[in-house]
Design goal:
460 residues; eight-stranded mixed sheet; five-stranded parallel sheet; 12 helices; binds flavin-adenine dinucleotide
C-alpha cells in the first residue's frame, strides 16, 4: 500500500480529515488528491474590468482547489444542527455540535482569533420575526470573512505540508475496490491505501454519481433549492446584520404553503458568479476587511423543491432552470423588484437610474421567464414579509439576481461511521449529501479521521 489513508478532495471536509489524522498520528502516511489548484494559485479571472463574466475555466477557482468551495466564500461557520446538513442524524446532535466547536477552535488557532461569533440567543429580532409570520432559526455564526478564511487555510496548509502529501491539479478519475483496500486512479498513476475518504463537494457531484453507479453504492436524490439572490443597500438590513451577521429566516407562503428561506447573508458584500459543471449561477460573499466591503448587503431567497417517485433527477431539474437563465442572459440575469412586480424586464438604463448599484455585472432581464411561477410567487411573498421586519426590502430598486440554485448532491447511503457499503471507504462533506456547509463538512472530516485513528489504534 502506498498510503495509510487517501483523501480525495481538499475542501473543508478533506482538509479537516487530513489535519486531524496528521496532528493526532504523524506516523500515518496520508495523501490528498485535489482536482483544483493550490491555494496560492487559485484565481478567478473575473476582475470586473477586463473580464466581467464567467469564462468557464477548466477548473473553477471559486469551487475547486485547496480550501474547496469554501476558500473564497464568506467563511461563515454556522455552529448549529438547525441547518447546514444532517450530520447529527448519523453521529448524534451533541457530537455534531462538539465537532463544530472543535473546528472553530482550530480556525481560531490558525489566524481566526479576533473574529466575531454572533448568536441568535436572546435577541429581540426573533420576536419581531414571529410577529410577522417569519421564523428565525437558532445558530451561532463565526464570521471569518473571505480574507481571514484565506489566512486560516494558508496556515493549515503550512502546518500540514510536511506530513501530508498533497497532489494538486490531480483529479481522481476513479476508485477501484481491492481485497484489502482501494486503488485511487489519476490520469497519470494510481495509488493504494487500506482506507479512502471521498470528500469531493458539489463540484464533484457528477463524479460521485458515476462512482456510486460503478461501485453499486446506493444513493437517493430528491431535493433542489431554487431562487434568487437579493441585493439591497446594507443599511436596510443593518438591524439584523449588525446583531446577528447572518440570519436564517423561514417564511411559509400563504398561497402554496411552501417554505422560503434566507440563505448565505453577506452584509456589505458582493454578488458573484458560481460555475457548477459549466452552468453559471449566482452566489455571494463579503470581506472582514472594511476596505473591501461594499455599500450593499446580499442574501439568497430559496424555495426547497422535494420530488417524489418516480422522478429522481432533482439536480437535473435545477440545472435546466439555471440553463434557461444562461440561455436568455448569457449567464446570470438581474432584475429590479419593481420591474418584476410590473411584469416588465429590467434594462441597463432602469438599473443605472436605480438607487442600488449592482456589485455583479449581470444581464438585465426578466426572471419570470426563468423561474417557475410557484417559486417566483413564494419569493415575492417573502420579500413583502421581510419588508415588515426590514422596511425597504420591497423597494422597487431592490435587485434580484437569478438564478441561485443549491444543488444537493444525491445522498450516498452511509452508516453511522459515514462509511459506505465498502468497509474503509468513507464519503463525507457536501459530496455525500449529508452536509451543505463549511462547519458540517469540516466536522464530518474530523469525525471520520477519529474513526480511522481509533481503528488504527485498536489494530496495533
Ligand atoms: C461562493 C460560495 C460561498 C459560500 N459561502 C459559505 C458560507 O459562508 N458558509 C458555509 O457554511 N458554506 C458556504 N458555502 C458552501 C461551502 O463552501 C461548502 O458547503 C463546503 O465548502 C463543503 O465542503 P466540502 O469539503 O464538502 O466540499 P468542497 O469545498 O466543494 O471541496 C471539494 C473539493 O474536492 C475537489 N474534487 C472534486 N472532485 C474531485 C476529484 N474527482 N478528484 C480530486 N478532487 C476533486 C474539488 O476540486 C474541491 O476542491 C459557500 C459556497 C460557495 C460556492
Amino acid at each position: 500500500m502506498n498510503y495509510d489513508v487517501i483523501i480525495v478532495g481538499a475542501g473543508p471536509g478533506g482538509i479537516f480529515a487530513a489535519y486531524e489524522l496528521a496532528s493526532k498520528n504523524p506516523e500515518l502516511r496520508v495523501a490528498v488528491f485535489e482536482a483544483g489548484y493550490a491555494l496560492s494559485d487559485r484565481k478567478c479571472p473575473i476582475d470586473g474590468v477586463r473580464v466581467k463574466n464567467c469564462v468557464r475555466c477548466k477548473s473553477c477557482s471559486i469551487m475547486s482547489g485547496f480550501g474547496g468551495a469554501g476558500a473564497f466564500s464568506d467563511g461563515k461557520y454556522n455552529i448549529t444542527n438547525d441547518f447546514g446538513g444532517t450530520l447529527y442524524q448519523y453521529i448524534g446532535r451533541r457530537e455534531a455540535l462538539e465537532l463544530m466547536h472543535y473546528v472553530d477552535d482550530i480556525n481560531l488557532a490558525h489566524g481566526g482569533a479576533g473574529t466575531k461569533l454572533y448568536s441568535t440567543a436572546n435577541t429581540d429580532i426573533k420576536k419581531r420575526c414571529m410577529q410577522n409570520k417569519l421564523k428565525l432559526l437558532d445558530a451561532s455564526v463565526r464570521h471569518l470573512g473571505t480574507d481571514i478564511n484565506y489566512v486560516v487555510l494558508k496556515n493549515l496548509y503550512e502546518e500540514m505540508r510536511e506530513r501530508v502529501d498533497f497532489f494538486f491539479r490531480t483529479p481522481v478519475t476513479t476508485v477501484t475496490v481491492l481485497e484489502d483496500g482501494y486503488r485511487v486512479h489519476t490520469e497519470q498513476e494510481s495509488y493504494t491505501a487500506p482506507r479512502c475518504i471521498l470528500s469531493v463537494g458539489r463540484s464533484g457531484s457528477k463524479w460521485m454519481e458515476q462512482l456510486c453507479r460503478a461501485l453499486d453504492i446506493p444513493t437517493s436524490s430528491n431535493r433542489v433549492d431554487l431562487g434568487v439572490r437579493v441585493e439591497l443597500p446594507a443599511v436596510i438590513f443593518s438591524d439584523l446584520t449588525d446583531e446577528l451577521y447572518e440570519s436564517k429566516i423561514v417564511y411559509r407562503t400563504e398561497k402554496f404553503e411552501d417554505n422560503v428561506r434566507t440563505f448565505c447573508m453577506n452584509p456589505k458584500g458582493s454578488v458573484v458568479n458560481e460555475n457548477t459543471n459549466g452552468i453559471v449561477t449566482v452566489n455571494g460573499h463579503s470581506y472582514e476587511d472594511a476596505e473591501k466591503q461594499t455599500e450593499n448587503t446580499n442574501f439568497a431567497l430559496l424555495v426547497s423543491k422535494h420530488f417524489s417517485e418516480p422522478f429522481k433527477d432533482s439536480n437535473g431539474y435545477g440545472e435546466s432552470i439555471a440553463r434557461l437563465s444562461n440561455m436568455l442572459g448569457g449567464g446570470v440575469i438581474v432584475q429590479r423588484f419593481g420591474d418584476l412586480i410590473r411584469g416588465r424586464r429590467s434594462t441597463h438604463k432602469r438599473i443605472a437610474e436605480g438607487f442600488v448599484t449592482p456589485t455583479l455585472q449581470a444581464e438585465p432581464g426578466d426572471l419570470s421567464l426563468v423561474l417557475p411561477k410557484r417559486i417566483l410567487d413564494g419569493i415575492i411573498e417573502m420579500v413583502y414579509a421581510l419588508d415588515k421586519i426590514a422596511p425597504g426590502t420591497a423597494n422597487d430598486d431592490t435587485l434580484l439576481y437569478g438564478v441561485e440554485v443549491k444543488f444537493y448532491n444525491m445522498e450516498v447511503q452511509v452508516n453511522e461511521h459515514l462509511e459506505c457499503r465498502y468497509p474503509g471507504l468513507y464519503v463525507i462533506g457536501d459530496g455525500s449529501g449529508v452536509t451543505h456547509s463549511l462547519s458540517h463538512a469540516s466536522a464530518s472530516g474530523v469525525f471520520v479521521a477519529r474513526d480511522i485513528l481509533s481503528r488504527v489504534k485498536s489494530a496495533d
